[in-house]
Amino acid sequence: MPSRYRVEYQLKSHRKDELIEWIKGLLAVPFVLHSSSDSDDARQLIRQRYAEIFTAVESLVDEQFEIGQQMHLPDQDFHRERTRLTQLVPSVGPFFTRLPLEKSFYLEDRKRAISSRTMVAPSFNDIRHILNSAQILQMRQFNDVKLVTFDGDVTLYEDGGSLTESSKVVPFLLDLLRNGICVGIVTAAGYDEAQKYMERLFGFIVALEEDSTISPELKENLAVLGGESNYLFRYNAKLGELVSIPLESWIRSPMREWSESDMTETLDLAESLLRGFRTALNLPEESTIIRKPRAVGIVPGNRWNPETKRTNRIKMEREQLEEMVLTLQHRIENFAPARRIQFSCFDGGSDVWCDIGGKDLGVAALQNYFCPENPIKPHQTLHIGDQFAPMGSANDFKARLSGCTVWISSPQETVEVLRCLTTGFDHYTRSSSVIPIAVATTDSCYQ
To answer: What is any one GO biological process for this UniProt entry (predicted)?
Structure first.
């Protein structure tokens, strides 16, 4: 049986993606009408019906993409009035690429046997995989990827872990650099010194330094942008390590116009709210509030267990984490100084943070930093992360505003995404390995 958390998670509106839920509803109709038999004819019929739905959605995406190409992103009112898809899914935004959804459905159906199921309708994950594969297929077709960015925890390494020399993702990161693709790690980890990031990426840094097949110029296409969009470090091939890049050499609008007082007051309010939560939500007394120059958060503490004679990390309840992050978001977005800047509220599964900035600004900063004369375009950018819930608890969500995105749930899936991006889908249509996840959206839309 599913856990209580798993059941309740599916019932929370702030955890649902409207586009996926809408497609799920479309597919429920042919499932009910045509899946009562497991004969070959019945399977062929329902496969055809599913494909027809994805063909129709693909045409709506095409219209959305074409309209988006004719205007600037901020002109949302015109955009929403002119597309059929925005009438059907109001939260959907412009697309950075087309999506070959019919082709992707057949690809995933061969792998997952979606149309062969008679008792389980197409699920959220089925649809997500189809959207994901469509994004990768499109990006491979044009072979125009110039920047791939990554979240850290749960994307490149396990939560709280680091990249070791034996990490399976390391060869793929090296391969991206070897082929002239810029690699950026855009993480919420807000360290203002390079050493902290070097420790988390140690295995990758060592492998990069020792790889003689990558030129020094290409090695320096590695950068880390920490604290969402606050601290930039770039790999220096001569030193074999990350070095800090002065703020004035990479910061861009709108961050350049933000006042220190607005940022400080926003963090002051967030810190005050977090202190109130400790009492109101009966949080463990070991929980600790941490204030940084551009962020404030609450993290679980440690408690000595006399029975095991070990110090164990205290866990906060999922409901407590979500109450804190949603309340923070609501209260701060109505705070005048916060309206003049940008901030991100999210929970990392065990803690809650409010950061100045956002990953959309971080990705955009790298697009301009690597190519200042001709900035990398959103359709040439792929961001890979695990935090893409529609609101509140996901700081990767904003990256959808600056490029195509990939929604993964483990470092193993990151490996599969990179394998499909670099070598194609042949290997996983013949195997039972993890399916790649590649969702790209803006305001809950898929690029």
So the answer is: nucleotide metabolic process
The structure tokens 């935004």 sit at 93
What local confidence, expressed as pLDDT, does residue 172 receive?
95
| pLDDT surpasses 90 at 11 | no
> From the candidates 151, 262, 355, 443, which is the catalytic residue?
151
With 0-12 CB in 10 A as exposed, 13-18 as middle and 19+ as buried, what is 310?
Answer: exposed
Active site residue 211: no
Q: In this predicted model, what pLDDT tens digit does every residue of 383-428 receive, in sequence order?
A: 988 877 655 556 777 888 899 987 888 899 899 889 989 888 776 5
Marked catalytic residue, from 17, 109, 153, 396: 153
- Dump the DSSP string for 317-331: -HHHHHHHHHHHHHH
Whether the pTM exceeds 0.90: the reply is no
426 an active-site residue? Answer: no
- The reply to whether 345 and 232 lie within a common domain is yes
Indicate if 148 and 76 belong to the same structural domain.
no
Domain count, the chain: 2
Residues 263 and 372 in one domain: yes
Structural domain includes residue 418: no
